[in-house]
Design goal:
Blueprint lengths: L9 H18 L2 H9 L5 E2 H6 L5 H13 L3 E6 L2 E6 L2 H14 L3 H4 L1
Amino acid sequence: MKEPSNVNDPKQMQQLAAQAANWLKVMAHPDRLLVLCQLIDGEISVGALMQLSTLSQSAFSQHLSVLRQNQLVTTRKEAQQVYYRLADERVKKLIELLHNEFCQGRNEEQ
């Protein structure tokens, strides 16, 4: 049986699998997943993101911190405003996949 061409180093594959598992663990929280979904089309100010949430400011900030620490989002500051965006094209692809499977066309099925 032929091995996939991108599987060269088992240690590297272990590291990549650990990163993927960590991202999935972070995304597994519904509130963080909703933030990531809001960012799929581009960057949004923290104020606009907060308006889309039912969380307290403190709880919302903690979730944003987890997303930043795990490198799923990055920020850009402009004057007093902070803007969030997805940090990696791989994150965007994962969110798009979830959106296509769980959100798109849901109203039609119900």
